[in-house]
Amino acid sequence: MTQRIRKREQDPQIVGRIQAVLWVALGLFVLLLGRLYWLQVVQHERFRTLSENNRLRIRTIRAPRGQILDRKGRAIAETQASFDLICSPIDITDLEGELKLLEEIVDFDMDEVAGKIRTAKKKNPYSSVTVARDLRFEQVSVVEFNREALPGFSVLVEAKRSYPFGRAFAHVLGYVGEVSQEELDESEDERVAMGDIVGKYGLERREDGILRGINGGRHVEVDAAGRDKRLVEEVPPRAGGIVATTLDADLQKTAEEAMEGKAGAVIAIVPKTGDILAFVSAPAFDPNAFSRGIRKAEWQALSGDIRKPMQNKGLQGTYAPGSTVKPFVALAALEEGIQDPKATVRCPGYLQIGNRAFRCWREKGHGTVDMYKGIVQSCDVYFYTMGLRLGPDRIAKLEKDAGLGTITGIDLPAEKKGLVPDTEWKQKVSKERWYDSERAILGIGQGAIHVTPLEMLAGYASIAAGGEVMRPRLVERIVRKDGTVEQRPPASLRKLPWKPENVAFVRRALAGVVNDYGTGGAAKIPGVEVGGKTGTAQVAAVKGKMIKSENLPYQLRDHAWFVGFAPVSDPEICVVAMLEHGGHGGSAAAPIVKAVMLEYFRTKPAAASKEKK
Questions:
Q1: Cα 218 to Cα 125: distance, rounded to the nearest angstrom
Q2: How big, in percent rounded to 5, are the helix, strand and coil portions of the chain?
Q3: What residue spans define the domains of the chain?
């Protein structure tokens, strides 16, 4: 019996099995220890963070954008409180179901919002996504009442961009919107994050780095449904800087009202400094719609409007200038010495060039015309003759020097350059010589030439300032986030070598356009000597008998121009008005310039009195 037991204990098979089990158990124990070490030591920080994120959330506090002020210190862009619907993607349990419920309460694009939330959930599930902005009180109440059915959604009070003057400053201030992924990829500012509001257009875009503040945040403890339970820590946001402009809200409103129902641009400038006093492009849009998040239907209405309300016509629209170029042609003739101002040209109502008759705007003609009368009465035949005598290169040189067909350098983005044609341009385009018919019509601002209203204003401002070309200026000073102030003084681009007597003659003739029974009589102001020039730029050639512009279809009607400055002896303000398909410059554009000047001289004594105090 004892021998049998000893034999079993020493059975090698049993011993081997026991040893195998022991080794497996030891291996499993080592693996378990290794896994515990990996989780608790190596991956400690990661899992601690995940644990904290399940309990804690960082709620971003959007920093309010800085104010934009007019020249009198009035806010033309500011920040107001807004109730915004925010989503935390990590806490969403049923995205489609919750969005369908919200769609009954809040107006938003479901597909767009769902896409944003899914993208955020993949990239950073703990980030917040703005679903809707500027909720009404009753909408906030309904959302709060249904919080149990909406895990992951909450209402926060955020800073919303507000434009107290609505459409008036739309194209100069621009608008803001949520930063896009493309903008995030291109941005060099590490503080810009998904959901931030940035400048998209106009001054808001140009000065975004100054106006955009630094976000703060709340560290809050949440429950299982993602609802805030306890504030752990709060870092307040820092507001953006201030941009003080040269704009005048009174003049801006006057210009906007004068352009009601019209398409075009009105810009006012101080010739001696380049300060922009008013800058209106019509029709316009409401920048407040972009602040709350523009709806698809609103955007489609804007983008589908043939009058292009999203285009800044003042610096992006280019048009044939018509007779507004005649003072520059006259000045070129005087500077080049090819025409004595007292020498006359006979105007029978047309000028024959080859087998073609080029008509004057007055069918019966102006009779005998010297340079003064040619400008005052805007005689086409006189300036056809000057175009032939000067040629394109001499006209182009003086016009470009004055600012036409050039980038003015205004502190707004996306400025477009017009075209003042010369021989070099002609060779590039057609490799042909200039024909007499082409040379002649350059004298009256027709043909290949096209300019922006801002360029034309810069040109007349240079005449008003005696040949000093100033850079148009919108920003006078900025106050940075840290409180430091930066002044942006006027800048002279160039001083032109025009003879004072020639400039004085042209200015006297421009005064005659308004005050000596010329084409600009509608701009006359009692007690203030206004000088200026009308322009009626043909859009489409009409064969046969002359047809009045107002009798043509809208898209074929002439563009209407008027550019003026006052007082002529010492110009303080220069204004351009350009109306798309507006008809005659004297009847359509001149009254708009007059309205802006009347407001300027009405408020000027009050402003001067305030400065003395």
A1: 17
A2: 45, 20, 35
A3: 57-243, 249-612
